[in-house]
Prior knowledge:
By secondary structure, the chain is of the alpha+beta class. 51% of the residues lie in helices and 21% in strands.
Amino acid sequence: xxxxxxxxxxxxxxxxxxxxxxxxxxxxxxxxxxxxxxxxxxxxxxxxxxxxxxxxxxxxxxxxxxxxxxxxxxxxxxxxxxxxxxxxxxxxxxxxxxxxxxxx
Length: 104
């Protein structure tokens, strides 16, 4: 009886450790909370692009990893690319912006 109880306790401890480790962040992997935060940042930046008449939200892609926003896609001119970077940098929570936008 006692052995069965010890096994259950051991199994519960291993499961708990696995769950905690599954939510941990590494250099190349986001935690669940970071993923949600990054998704929120991506949405905020895209919303700014939609509201701005200079930036084409359809042509510029936004991806976020651990607070760093990466912009890619194509802009009609340098002013559009610069404005996209400016809007992304001005978004609360953005740590840095990587600009990979190309001109058409």
